[in-house]
Every structure is written in C-alpha cells, then in structure tokens.
Design a protein that fits this description.
- This protein is α/β, with parallel strands linked by helices.
- Helices cover 46% and strands 16% of the residues.
- It has a domain of 215 residues: Rossmann fold, CATH 3.40.50.
- The protein is built from 19 helices and 16 strands.
- Strand 7, helix 7 and strand 8 form a beta-alpha-beta unit.
- Helix 3 packs across helix 4.
- The two termini are 28 Å apart.
- The model has no long low-confidence stretch (mean pLDDT 95).
Length: 469
C-alpha cells in the first residue's frame, strides 16, 4: 500500500514512512492510494478472531509490505494487553432506548484515543529500531489525545514527546493525566489560547522544513494516518459483533472529524454502514456544514464537552479529498481559500452527495446534562458529556426502524466528574490505577501561541538534554 497527499504535491510514501511523516510536506494529509476491500467471506471470518487478532487483520492491507501481518499480530497483542476488559476491550452495551453503546474507554487513559495510540507507540518503536533513528513527537490535544499519546510514548529511548494543550480549556483530570507524568522524554506545554491555536502551532512547525528535518518531527495527532487506520478497527469490530447482515448507523461525538472519518473508512472497505451521524456540541461547525454545504469558522465556546471545543476540523480535509473525487488540486485550492477567508462552500451537488452518508446534530450543554441524567435514570449508567452529546444525536435521529444505531462512548465518566455529578448527583470515581491522580505533583510549562517561541523552547529542551536526532 502506498499513500498520497490530499494536496498532491508531496512524495508518495509507504506505510512505515507515513508513520514517521505525519503531516505531508505540502501541508496535506496522507491517505491510502486505494481503499482495501473486505469481502463478505472475509468479514464472516473476522468473527472468530480476538480483538487484537482482528486489529492485525484489518491493519495488514494498510501496512503491508512495510509491516507484515505477523508483526502486527504481535504488536497488537501487546498493545491491548493492558486494557481492563478482556478478551474484548471494546464491548457493546444495549441501552433501554435501543441504542448500542460501544465503550471505548477501557484503555490506560480512559478514552478512545488509547485504542489507536497504544498501537502507534509500538509502530514507532518497530520502525525506528529498523532504521536506528530517533524522532521528536509534536502533538496538540483538546483533552484526551495528549494523555493517551504520553502513555503510549513515555520512557521510550527512541523519542521525545511534546504535547500542547489549551491552558484552562481541558478538564482537571485530563490535564493531570498529562502533567503528572515525570518521564524524562515527556514535555507538556500549556498554550495561552484554544485547541485550534495549538493545532496551528503544530502545523506551523511541521511546515518549517529546516526545523522539521533537524529534529525529525513526527505526529501522534490524527493527522497521522496510522491513527485513523487503527480506529477503523473498532468499527469493523462492532459490525462483526452485531452481524454483518444488519443495517448500521454509527453516531460519533467529534470535533476534529478523525473518529468519524475512521468510520467512513470502514464503510469504504465494505462494512455495511448506512449512515454516519456527526454529533457536535455548541461548537457546531460540522453540523452547519452538513446543513448548508458551507464550512465557516465561528467563535469557540467553552462547553461541558471540551474535547469538541474546536472550529477547525483538521481531518475534514481527508473527507473533502473524497468528496472532490480525489482531485488534489481542487482540495489544495479549497484549503487555501479556507486559510485566507475562514470559509468555503462545496456547492449543492457535493452537499447532496455528502448527506447521502452523513447527518449531523447539535447538542448544547443543557441537553447534554439532560441526557446524562436520562441515561442514568433509565439504565443506571453514568456517561461522560461527550458520550451524552452522541446519545442525544442518536435519540433525535430520524432513521428507519431496522437500522441499528451504535453510539461511540468516547471517555470514562470519571474524566469529567463535575459535569456528571451535577447531572446525576453521583460523582464517578477513577479506577484504582488513577486513584491518586488528584494528589500527584504536576510539571508543565506555559507559552504564548507563537510559533517562534515554541520553536525556541523545543530546541532549547532538546539541546539541554544533548539529544541527537
């Protein structure tokens, strides 16, 4: 499998090169040259596999020949060994309202990002060992990616990891999961700004060719294709678990569009997905797009679901590439216009095509609280605010009765205890391995949203360590 940039001006790369590259050098995102296909017979055979075995099987066509299925099998078995539900780390729970909830919070940092990043950390090790190389990982987080990336990359000799988070805009649990890790190769930076500011800083440094080459920058955000590929796995798992002859709709709480694009990827591979519902909070740029065909940046509001407090959905470019029939020049022109004006319009024809697959719904904080309360009263289950946004969208969706609705539970409720307690009167508790989190000392630095300042800070940190890359 080879990979091409959504903007068409970057070299074609193999999978192992894409793992290390992250963002393409032309500013685009890497996508597979073709979508591999899972036949009906292949899908049925997956039902006999454990989750790690299924992950290796699904990832193999994306990774071969750079990484073999046998290597992936060993890597995935190790990646999911620490998850707290075995043998199935992504269980499906049927709610009394008929919605299936796929619980993706059983990893070490209690969020869906673990399911891909535990794999990606081990892929880094595999590829770097082969090449005798060292890298510097740079990532931005709206809350969960940072802790999952740090957990996957801490104490690894072949890399340093710098994670940017928006100061004061993540939950205390999310922040502490990052800032209480004192590993020598982990560096947390609080940026005075929004998540979009953090994301812009990451892109600016990746597009600085001398800096990128000097420190061998690599990405853990969902701009890294391997992240998306590993997320495709749990959509395949859900379809296989429920039955591949069923009609399926996935409801995905999302701000950056990466998680729902992974579901789109599963559909492109042959999973029988009828509808994908994008669930947004008050920061509803995606909902507005699927209603109008116009993507336009608005103000960012702080909400109970902070991981979705985003206005620039970086992974949307991958879907735009598909919507424009893989016309990289058209995508590059559209993204340039978006950068210059803060808006673009795909036109009624493309909007009609998009809404054959995608629906979108918006959920404000009041409905989020009501949904948390309702699910607790109906099912005795505590859910986090992001999952509540998804369930609210699922409950409001006008779908045929025979379409099975599967909502993604993206985080453990204890990551957002204040919101959950306010809605239910019950304060969720952290699992034993994080029981002392709120008492641990923190370590992080604070910087303005300035690429030059960030560039100097990273260089100074690595130079002081005597790191040679």
């Amino acid at each position: 499998m080879n990979y091409i940039s959504t903007r068409g001006q970057a070299p074609v790369l193999a999978f192992d090169d894409v793992v290390l590259a992250g963002l393409a050098c032309d500013g685009g995102l890497y996508v597979p040259e073709i979508w591999p296909q899972l036949t009906a017979d292949a899908l049925r055979s997956l039902g006999r596999l454990s989750y790690p075995e299924l992950a290796a099987r699904v990832l193999a066509p994306f990774a071969e020949p750079a990484v073999s299925e046998a290597e992936l099998a060993l890597l995935c078995e190790d990646a999911y060994r620490g998850f707290d539900v075995r043998p199935n780390p992504a269980p499906l729970r049927r709610l009394s309202c008929g919605i299936h909830l796929m619980e993706l919070f059983h990893g070490p940092t209690l969020a869906f990002k673990d399911y891909a990043l535990q794999v990606l950390g081990r892929l880094f090790d595999l590829v770097l060992a082969r090449r005798s190389q060292r890298i510097t990982i740079l990532g931005a987080t709206s809350g969960d990616t940072g802790s999952a990336a740090i957990e996957a990359c801490r104490d690894r000799d072949s890399l340093d990891i710098f994670v940017l988070h928006p100061k004061g805009r993540v939950s205390e649990v999310q922040r502490r999961q990052m800032t209480t890790v004192f590993s020598d190769n982990v560096h947390n930076i609080a940026i005075d700004g929004t998540f979009d500011d953090c994301q812009d800083l990451v892109k600016a440094l990746f597009l600085d060719a001398p800096f990128r080459e000097r420190f061998h920058l690599a990405a853990v955000n969902s701009i890294n294709w391997a992240r998306i590929a590993a997320q495709i796995v749990y959509y395949v798992h859900a379809a296989v678990s429920l039955g591949t002859d069923l009609r399926l709709a996935f409801i995905v709480p999302t701000g950056n569009f990466g998680n729902v694009f992974a579901a789109y990827g599963a559909a492109q591979m042959g999973i029988p997905i009828e509808t994908l519902i994008v669930a947004s909070n008050r920061n509803d740029i995606l909902t507005r797009f699927f209603a109008s065909g116009r993507m336009e940046i608005g103000s960012i509001f702080s909400t109970l679901s902070p991981s979705m407090d985003i206005q620039v959905s970086s992974n949307f470019e991958r879907y735009l590439f598909e919507l424009y029939d893989r016309d990289a020049a058209a995508v590059a022109a559209t993204m340039e216009a978006f950068r210059d004006t803060g808006a673009f319009d795909v036109g009624p024809g493309r909007l009609s095509r998009a809404t054959r697959t995608f629906l979108a719904a918006r959920c404000d904080d009041e409905l989020t609280k009501q949904t948390i309360s309702t699910i607790y009263n109906e099912d005795g289950l505590l859910i986090d605010p992001h999952t509540a946004v998804g369930i609210a969208a699922a409950r409001s969706a006008d779908l045929p009765a025979d379409v099975n609705r599967v909502c993604i539970a993206t985080a453990h409720p204890a990551k957002f205890p204040d919101a959950v307690e306010a809605a239910t009167g019950v304060r969720p508790t952290l699992p034993p391995h994080l029981a002392t989190l709120m008492d641990r000392p923190e370590r992080y630095s604070s910087l303005p949203a300035d690429p030059a300042v960030l560039r100097r800070a990273i260089a100074a940190t690595l130079d002081a360590k005597g790191v040679t890359v």
